[in-house]
Automatic annotation (TrEMBL):
UniProt keywords, alphabetically: ATP-binding, Ligase, Nucleotide-binding
Superkingdom field: Bacteria
GO molecular function, one term: glutamate-cysteine ligase activity
EC number annotated for this UniProt entry: 6.3.2.2
Catalytic activity: L-cysteine + L-glutamate + ATP = gamma-L-glutamyl-L-cysteine + ADP + phosphate + H(+)
Protein name as it appears in the record: Glutamate--cysteine ligase
Sequence similarity: Belongs to the glutamate--cysteine ligase type 2 family. EgtA subfamily.
Any GO BP annotation: glutathione biosynthetic process
Function: Catalyzes the synthesis of gamma-glutamylcysteine (gamma-GC).
Length: 455
């Protein structure tokens, strides 16, 4: 969830017309397009495996303060507490349950993404020398903590969100406090290109979620799901999360997308660094009537966009959100996969042809089946594993064509190698592997599981 940095200058929005060109202005030509990564990490007690509190000498705030001191980050303070860090366009923020999120500045290729991730993990590993008894896990759900036992990060945004979302879905607090994901961001060249990408992502996201299923174990036992994170999202707020029917439409426009966003209820606005709860008001109505003497600004609209959580969404770019948090060696595969398809027209067309005849019912049924079956799910009689293998091959074609090399003269296909070797060739997700290890070599020992998941 985004960390809001209030701007001194607020651009007034007098009518819906003032927003109609909002998404158009961020279109970029092919030679300017970039790739972004967001990576969420779980901090747990080394012995108990339970979530580290926000407060205390070994807490999340102490970790942020140590990172700021050791690596020169600027602290972002709310109500006297350190809640985020910033340095040269890179943001380290906190999810509501203390999940530590890297939002790296956008870069030219996946090689640079890998370097950003390596630096982030190096910094976290370094901090362990100063704060004892903490492990950082690359995993998608807290493995041993109950939701009620996880301390809320003391941000007013999260206080407002928690009250709003729990009325919309019974697992909203589980989503906020227990889950973690890896997200990627991509540019678009035009309105047409933007919706070709958005629709393709929405249609492929269930297959990608299956490939990267990695949340089978929580509350100290197997949950019955391979991606419990997806199950939790289904019971958060259906109106603003998951697969959205509008995203599956091939001929949508920014104006139609804007209309959809404007009809969603608002949660909050920020004035003079103070968060103000907004009750039962759509953004459209806010533009027309205002709220308690306050009137809409572009910054309010951008904040509103950040409170909408579908599998893919437009901000100043296309954000792709469907993957569970992965072990470190698999994280670069997520932006590599999507880049190979979305930034190469022949690959984009081949991927689209693969699922062209699926109905909306097919998509929604598959999305639900993935929670339990992952790569073993079927759609129209086809095994998702086989579809995933085809899609990765298509992505490799796109990456090969782009010819982005590292210092060893390797192109970006190297980041799909672990995905193929560990998951697609054996036909076993990370989730299934973790359960097999837990019941076998780990002998259901907490220490073994934590060591396996730690960076």
């Amino acid at each position: 969830m985004s960390t809001y940095l209030e701007s001194k200058h607020q651009d007034a929005v007098h009518s819906i017309d003032d927003l109609k060109r909002y998404f158009h202005q961020f279109a970029k030509p092919a030679d300017k397009r970039l790739v972004g990564i967001e990576c969420e990490i779980l901090a747990v007690d080394s012995e108990t495996g339970e979530a580290v509190n926000f407060s205390g000498p070994r807490g999340i705030e102490a970790i942020l303060n140590a990172l700021a001191y050791q690596f020169g980050y600027r602290k972002i303070i709310e109500a006297g507490r350190t809640v985020a860090l910033e340095k040269q366009g890179t943001l380290i923020s906190l999810e509501p349950g203390g999940q530590i999120e890297l939002s790296a500045s956008p870069v030219k290729n996946v090689h640079e993404v890998k370097r950003q991730l390596d630096q982030f993990f190096f910094e976290l590993k370094t901090i362990r020398h100063f704060i004892d008894g903490v492990k950082f896990l690359t995993y998608s759900i807290q493995p041993f903590s109950l939701t009620k036992d996880i301390e809320w990060v003391p941000k007013t945004r999260y206080k407002i969100m928690s009250a709003y979302l729990i009325e919309k879905g019974r697992l909203a607090h589980d989503m906020m406090k227990r889950t973690a994901a890896n997200q990627a961001a991509f540019d678009y060249a035009s309105e047409e290109d933007a919706f070709e990408k958005m629709c393709l992502v929405m249609r492929l996201t269930s297959i990608v979620s299956a490939m990267f299923a990695n949340s089978p174990f929580s509350k100290g036992k197997a949950s019955g799901f391979l991606t419990e994170r997806m199950h939790i999202w289904r019971f958060t707020d259906p109106s603003r999360s998951g697969l959205q029917p509008s995203g599956l439409c091939t001929h949508a426009t920014f104006e139609e997308y804007l209309s959809y966003i404007l009809e969603l209820p608002m949660m909050f606005i920020v004035r003079n660094h103070q968060w103000i709860k907004v009750n039962r008001l759509t953004f459209k109505r806010f533009i027309e009537k205002g709220y308690r003497g306050e009137h809409a600004t572009q910054q309010d609209f951008e904040l509103h966009l950040s409170s909408f959580f579908p599998e893919a969404r437009f901000k100043q770019y296309l954000e792709v959100r469907g993957a569970d948090a992965q072990r470190a060696n698999l994280i670069p595969a997520i932006p590599a996969f999507w880049k190979g398809i979305l930034y190469h027209e022949p690959s984009k067309k081949k991927a689209c042809d693969l699922i062209r005849h699926w109905t909306q019912t097919d998509h929604f049924k598959l999305h639900r089946d993935i929670e339990i079956r992952a790569l073993k799910a079927k759609v129209r009689g086809k095994l998702v594993l086989d579809l995933a293998r085809q899609l990765v091959s298509i992505a490799e074609e796109g990456l090969a064509a782009d010819r982005q090399f590292n210092e060893c003269e390797e192109d970006e296909r190297i980041y799909l190698t672990p995905l193929k070797a560990l998951i697609l060739e054996p036909g076993e997700t990370e989730a299934e592997r973790l359960l097999r290890l837990w019941r076998g070599p780990f002998r259901e020992k907490k220490e073994a599981l934590l060591s396996y998941l730690a960076i």
